[in-house]
Specification:
Elements (H helix, E strand, L loop, with lengths): L7 E4 L1 H9 L6 H13 L4 E6 L2 H9 L3 H11 L5 E5 L12 H13 L2 E6 L10 H9 L3 E7 L8 H13 L4 E5 L7 H14 L4 E4 L7 H10 L4 E4 L13 H8 L10 H22 L11 H4 L3 H13 L6 H14 L9 H15 L7 H8 L11 H8 L17 H10 L7 H9 L1 H11 L1
Parallel strand pairs: 1-2, 1-8, 2-3, 3-4, 4-5, 5-6, 6-7, 7-8
The structure holds cobalt (II) ion.
Cobalt (II) ion binds next to loops.
């Protein structure tokens, strides 16, 4: 049979699917019964680790995330395990020293990760250098991610420039990461076409159903020659998650970009995860009734966040200020130089907006906002207006170099702290869990022993 331009699918049910629709509460025991079948289904990769799963394992599920990875690896013999990494933030919310980043990547690869998708919330590639180098050295496939957003500054050319820098740093493939479902079908066609023309590596498109456009967006991207798309099995698809895997396989059957995956093979897996979802909703009392929300297109607030913000406002007895709050977010984003809203910038801008509508604009300024203005998260897409800067940090100096250059090696310190807490023989994985989520990890270790 002659080689055709088969569309590849990354299945996200084990990571983004369950993170988007079940608050990342899926347990390893929910996954294990289907791993062999998932391994044999014909996916390009299974996104199964990283993102919020690491935190959730330790915090909510009483599971060791490293142990989960080893379990996954013991079943997944053919299909690569893919993870999502936030560059210098690793899986946390702040910048870590280079020794922590490098060691984390090494341990992830050693324990079973084969593809690492790496992104930075500001698209500042300096924040990806160390993790990309470490991943390459460890022998992983490095996928550099360009975070997609819409602003008066961002054009296809600005995204291409980021992608080119990532390829120069050694990216084996490029992901267009549209975390809020903002990418419209024809915009996707043009962007993918440009990437396919200008870049020599495979292009992976990642989007969410939040605004209701995702399937159309994928179809136009497929027509433009995208190599890989991310989908979730139907029980964990749509809403704020990805388009449904089965639907895409069926849609392309017999067409030029047939996925080569037999949809019948997926039916038992789908049935299993439908039950898992039902059970998770009951056990964790999850609210998963998430409708399509086109407001995301105007306010760029990721789906999960809209409901979180509304709940927070209700708790403060200020639900009536909610419309003001969603108007406030784009204003703050503009003042901060149009950062894409993705972890951690989405949370930072979200809390600033809440403070602004409850107390008056910038009456209270959290340290994280000051750090963005100081350059401690990296370079913002547009330079921050000097007057705004002065209002937030006064005459403090700003940094223009790679933020982690200021961070001394941290591993020794973390190991020492852990020893003082009663764990002198902790292995490197435990040290890294502690480095990322100190209090949560200590509680986990205590409950485990
Ligand atoms: Co996503």
């Amino acid at each position: 049979m002659h080689e055709y331009n088969k569309l590849k699918i990354v299945e996200t049910v084990l990571r983004d699917g369950q993170q988007s629709l079940a608050a990342t509460r899926m347990r390893t025991s929910d996954m294990v019964p289907m791993l062999e079948q998932l391994d044999n289904a014909g996916f390009y990769a299974l996104e199964a680790w990283g993102g919020a799963t690491f935190d959730s394992c330790l915090r909510f599920l009483g599971e060791d995330p490293w142990e989960r990875l080893r379990t996954l690896k013991s079943y997944l013999k053919k299909t690569p395990i893919q993870m999502l990494l936030r560059g210098q933030n690793i899986l946390g919310y702040q910048h870590y020293a280079d020794d922590v980043v490098t060691e984390f990547v090494n341990r992830a690869v050693d324990n079973g990760v084969r593809i690492i998708r790496i992104f930075d919330a500001l698209n500042d590639v300096r924040n990806l250098e160390v993790s990309m180098q470490a991943a390459k050295k460890a022998g992983a496939h490095v996928q550099g991610a360009v975070v997609y957003t819409i602003s008066p500054y961002h054009t296809d050319e600005t995204f291409l420039k980021v992608a080119q820098e990532l390829v120069e740093l050694g990216a084996d493939s490029i992901c267009i990461k549209d975390m809020s479902g903002l990418l419209a079908p024809y915009a996707a066609y043009n962007l993918v076409k440009m990437f396919k023309t200008e870049l020599a590596v495979p292009i992976n498109l990642h989007t969410h159903y939040t605004s209701g456009m995702a399937s159309m967006t994928y179809l136009k991207a497929i027509e433009a020659g995208v190599d890989i798309i991310d989908c979730a099995l139907s029980p964990f698809a749509l809403g704020t998650s990805q388009p449904a895997t089965e639907a895409f396989i069926a849609a392309l059957e017999g067409a030029e970009r047939d996925t080569g995956i037999h949809k019948e093979k997926l039916y038992p897996i789908t049935d299993h995860f439908r039950n898992v979802k039902k059970e998770l909703i009951e056990s964790f009392k999850l609210n998963t009734a998430i409708d399509i929300d086109t407001k995301v297109l105007s306010f760029q607030i990721p789906g999960g966040m809209l409901s979180n913000l509304l709940n927070q406002m209700k708790e403060q007895g200020m639900a009536d200020k909610y419309p003001e709050l969603i108007e406030e977010m784009p204003k703050i984003r503009a003042e901060l130089g149009y950062p894409p809203l993705v972890t951690p910038t989405s949370q930072i801008v979200g809390s600033m907006a809440a403070f602004n509508v409850m107390l008056g604009r910038y009456k209270i300024v959290p340290e994280e906002i000051k750090d963005i203005v100081r350059g401690k998260y990296g370079r913002t897409p547009v330079e921050i207006d000097p007057e705004f800067r002065k209002m937030i940090i006064g005459d403090e100096s700003i940094i223009t170099y790679r933020p982690a250059d200021d961070i001394e090696p941290q591993l020794g310190k973390f190991r020492q702290e852990l020893a003082q807490a009663g764990y002198p023989n902790a292995n490197m994985e435990d040290v890294l869990s502690y480095a990322l989520f100190p209090e949560v990890a200590l509680t986990f270790f205590k409950n485990k022993s």
